[in-house]
Every structure is written in structure tokens, then in C-alpha cells.
Design brief:
By secondary structure, the protein is an alpha+beta fold. The chain is 24% helix and 36% strand. It has 14 helices and 39 strands. Strands 30, 31, 32, 34, 35, 36, 37, 38 and 39 form a nine-stranded mixed beta sheet that branches. The two termini are 42 Å apart.
Amino acid sequence: MGKKAQLTVFVILGMLLLVTAVFVAYVQVHTSEIPGLPAIVVPELAQPVYAIVSACAEQLAKSAVVQAGLQSGFVSLPQETIVNQVARIQLDPSGVAIIPSWYYGNRLRIPGVNAMQDDISRYILARLPECVNEFEAAQDYVVTQAGNVSVDTILADTQVVVKVLWPLQITRAGASVLQQDYAAVVSAPLKRLYDVAKSVMQFEQEHAWFENLTIDLYSSDAEVPTDGLTVECDQKSWRVSAVRERVQSVLAASLPLVRVQNTNALGFSASSKVYAKLRARSFEDIASRKLPESVPRDAYEFYRLNLDAKIPPLPVQVGFEYRPEWGMLLNAQPHDGGWVRSNVAKPVQYLSLGCLNQWHVAYNLLYPVRVVIKDSAALNGEGFVFQFSFPVIIETNSPAREGYALRAFETLDQDSDFCNRRGDTTYDIRVQGIEPGVLQAVELGNVSISYLCVNKACDLGTTSADEGVYRLRTTLPESCGNPFIIASKQGYAQTQGVALSSQSAFQDVSAQSHVDLFLPRLANLNVAVFKHAYDSVTGVVGPAEPAGKQDEVSLSVRLKNKPGVSWEQVLTLPNQSVLSILESESEYDLSAFLTRTDVFTGVHELVGGYINEHWRVIDGRGMNAIELHVLEVRPLPTGKEGEQAVGRALYDGVYQDVLAPVLKAS
């Protein structure tokens, strides 16, 4: 919003709210009814300024809450969802609308309530000074800041409460008053909908409900081959790309029919007693057709598309969605050049009809599901939406989701009680690193410092200027001996060290309160891929040639033998083209797999790559490009022979040095 628009809004607000003690009484009653928010008494002189701050806080809070609802509870997107395609659903080509996944990397990634509150508070705090527009709407008032501003957000069940502490000295016509406390309320049920979402995610995690539903759906579809046996001599065949498209269309049509019990879902055509009687029928009854005279037309929906996540009755709607444009990884085994084929046995003497024709197909499947939860009456009738996503994972026709315990996202506080119980010792934490254009290590500011003890993590703060140095002085949670202190900053590899909590033979008492860490700087390299033809018969390697349009490389780089320093990156080229490595001498486990998409079948086929478990970089300073050289097996045998040929090429150490990546400074 521009300054003119803000000025107009707050001039109107000032005119409406510039009243006498009636407003004071209103504020007292209004705020006293909010949990965790005591009554705020606003002197008459401070009322226009209070109105401006509260209106801005409400406006910004609403914006943050709506954004959190649309982004799986995150106001600011986690870095992983920006760089990792499997960690999100991208709704638009430009990547503006992203729904972070609550499960990826074999872990649940659900933000905690405390983290959401802090995220909203940071959003408001960063924008509040601009919003009030130097209090131009409060005409004839002189407003002077008398202290630092802070914001605290409380997520109630159906409301979001914002408390602002902002000491302001307000003066008009010789009279002056200090106003510090302000409050705003947004009638958005963010926490209620978040709790529903969390229940659905936990139910899916524990029961693999959508995996089992997916298996049921494609196993019962005549166009998707799973198991079969016929007596005929003509071999049956199915194109894998066509099977994928069929599964996609079935899921796109079926998932919106899933209903969640105790929500505002579409009712069923019969009473629950009718379905219960039908469920009580034995297999023999069904086989002999001893069924009720009329079977409800939606019996399948009742039994198979009716999800009970143990949610209490709530006036919300819950919907599920999958769209083919979001992608799907589908692999069929066995397959032959993008086709699934049946096995035809020779004619059997006693079968006059011909041959035994049978097939058994196992599928590996990965696709994302979008969950949308809506309260239509929220925000004074505007409606409020909370959405998140998760993947459905199937391996060889079985659910592959493991039963991980619920845990918060890595960067978020897992246990506020644990983190708030601090010891008496103050630690002086300093972090050094090499800044651009500086030859020697210097103390770094704006380094995020966190605390790790077994499975407990706490954010401690960031380093900042303090008495001529950059450091963080803080106490630590008292319930852990010798915890890890972790330092992280964009452009550097993460480093951790131990905060000693007991005296050792090599350190005096004064040294125990110091933690000194060093962050290795990263060099960002633009990746260019070159492939070399590899003769699978002679072992001869050809000259370098640029990768083609159908070529795709999955690149993984993991730092090795650097105690206390961690760095790992996974890229899919050419979609992602920037690799980061340490500027200093380092060693990596590097693996690159070259695949090609068949233009006719759409199947990704492994055709080569490069593997080096001990790739060494002597000096990455000043480097901004890297040439990645990979083998391509030609001609590629089909089936198992092709896989074996690629394996021999990748794990033959002869080519590790010859095709080693080349760093360049352009």
C-alpha cells in the first residue's frame, strides 16, 4: 500500500476513533475477554495513536494469517521448499503459489504452534513502522518513540491475538502521555484448522490410508495391469506412460470424493444402520447373493472413501485433491523398454484353447496430495482456508510410509518448556568466517545460533554487534550436559561445536563460557553437463559433447571428513543449475546419474553417470562454474543387461580421475 492510500485509511480511522472515555471503556471490555490479554486502558490523548497502531497490527496480522493458511502454516517459506521440488506443490508456473509438504526426506515437517506464532510476530514487526506512516493521520499530535517495539502473537482456537509493546510519547497542545500497550484481534481459526490438518496428517502417517486407497483404486481398474491369468497365446502389453496417465486420471477423479467424519461433508444416501448390516454380511452371503434388497449406491464411498481421523464435530469442510500437472513418479516392474508385457507359456497339451498367459506387475508410485480445510464463516463471513500437502508413497504395491513420530520442522523450537529452563552461566558465542573481498577470517554478524541436545532443539538467537565485536551472549537450557551449539548463515556451510558444561583438565573455569566456531564459506558454481560415449563392449570413452534436451542428471554432493561441518546438496539438472561447495580444501561423495526420457513412452531410463566417493577440491576461491562430465553407455542393452552395463561403467574407478569435475573462474 502506498503512503497516500495509507494516509487516507488512517485519516478516516482517526476521525472515527477520536472519541472520549467511551473508547477507553470499549478497549477495557474488548481486551479483557481475550485469553492471555489483560484490559488495556487508553487515555483520551492516546486514542488516535492507539487506533492507528491497532489497525495496522490487525491489518498485518490478517495478511500474515491468511498467508500462513495458504502455505501449510508457514508465513515465510522454508528454504527446503524453495530448492527441493519434492518438498512442495507448485500451483503456478512462476512458483508464487507454493504449498509446502508436511512430509519429505523420510520425516514429518510440521511447524509447531510456537513457531507459527513467532513467524506471524516477525512479519508484523518488520512492517509495522511503515504501516503507521510516521503517524501522519494523527494530525496535531507529536509522537516520539521512547523504547523498542516488540510483537507477541497468541493463536487461540478461533482467534489470532496480537499484543504490541511500543513505548510512544504522545504530545498535543502541551499535554503529554506515554502509551506502551496495543492489541488487535483477527477472527481467523488458524489454530483450529491447523489442529484438524495435523490430525489428518497423523492419521495418514500411522495408517497409510491414502496409500492403501491408491492401491485399491488402481488394482481394481481394468486398464491398469496388476495380476492376471488367461488362456490365450497372444501376448498382452501395456505402455507404462499410458498406465501412468490412467492412474493419474483415476486419482484426480476419486480423491475429491473422500469425506472426513465429523465435518461439513456431503451426507450419505442411507442411515449408518443400513451400511452396518451390509458390512455384517459374510463372504458366503455375498457369494450366494444373500444381500439386502437395495444396496445404497454410495456403499463404496461409505466404506472406502470415508476417513475417520478422530476429529471432534466442527463446522469445517475438508477436501483432498490431486492434479496430473503436479506430476507423478510411476515405475512398473518388470518392464521392457517402456512396456509391461505378459508372460506367455507354450501351449499346454490338455488345454484345447491354447497357452497360459499370465502377468504380475509391481508398481512404485509417488505423487502429492493437497488437503484444503475451510471455515466459511470465519473472518466475518469472508471465509478462511488452511491447506497443506503430503506425498503418497508406494513401493512394490505396498505402502512405503514409515511410522515416524510427530516432530517439528528442524528450524523450529520443539519444546518451549525445555528451552526456557535456563542455567546460570552466560556463554559468549562468536563465529568467524571469510567475507567476500576479505583475506582473513573476521567475526560474522547475523549468524543464527541454535542448541541441540539429543532430540531437543532450541533457537538461541543471532550474533550482533556487542561492545566492538560480533557475538551472542546467552544462557543455555540447563537440562543437558555438553550440548552442541550450531551456527548457520546463508552462504556458509553449517558448523557445530560443543559447549562444555563441566571443567576439563585443559580449560579453566573462565574458558567454559566461550564457544568459538568457524563457518567455511561456500562458492556458488553454475553447472554445465558434458557427456562422453562409453562403449559397453570395448570400454572406450569418447570425447565430451553437451548434454541433450532429453538428458537429465540427478546430482548429489555430500561433504566428507570435515568434523563439525556439514554440507549436502541434491540437484536435478537442468531444472536446477547452481551447485555450492566449500571455498576451502574439501572432499565429497559425489554421484551423478544420467537419465533420458523416452519421447514416445515418457519413461525415465538410466543411461549413465559418474560416481566418485573421494572427489577432492583443493581451492574453490574465485570459482563460479563447474563442468560435470558423465558417461553415457552406447549402445545400451535392454533390461537387466542394460542396468549391469551402466553399473560397470559407473563403478569402474579408471574413469574417476579422467572425468573428474572441472572448476572454472569465468
